[in-house]
Specification:
The chain is mostly helical. It has a domain of 32 residues. It has three helices and no strands.
Length: 104
């Protein structure tokens, strides 16, 4: 599949994207342009997140080929950190929001 990649140079790619942006700006309303900008920004961020995560998983497979348990421990560790940080921030935010709402 890698052999079928687009052969555009960097300048050609930038020119192509700019032409699309100008076309969208000339045919869509200001609200539509704003929405499309937000959608494409989210798309770019999501693609970057997926790409980085896949690279990290490939790195884990390369380094833990002989260590079967380490991959599972890392996943549990990541899940635990995500859950704890979400709970803490949610708890603090909820308490802070309640306090600030009551004060006002």
């Amino acid at each position: 599949m890698k052999n079928n990649r687009c052969k555009m140079s960097s300048c050609e790619l930038v020119t192509f994207v700019t032409a699309i942006a100008c076309s969208i700006a000339n045919t869509c309303s200001s609200d539509e342009v704003s929405l499309l900008a937000a959608v494409f920004a989210q798309l770019g961020d999501t693609l970057a997140t997926i790409s980085v995560r896949e690279e990290l998983l490939e790195g884990d497979e390369d380094t833990s080929g002989s260590e079967n348990g380490s991959k599972e421990e890392d996943t549990t560790s990541c899940d635990g950190q995500s859950d704890n940080s979400s709970d803490n921030s949610t708890g603090k935010s909820g308490a802070d929001s309640s306090d600030s709402s009551a004060d006002k």
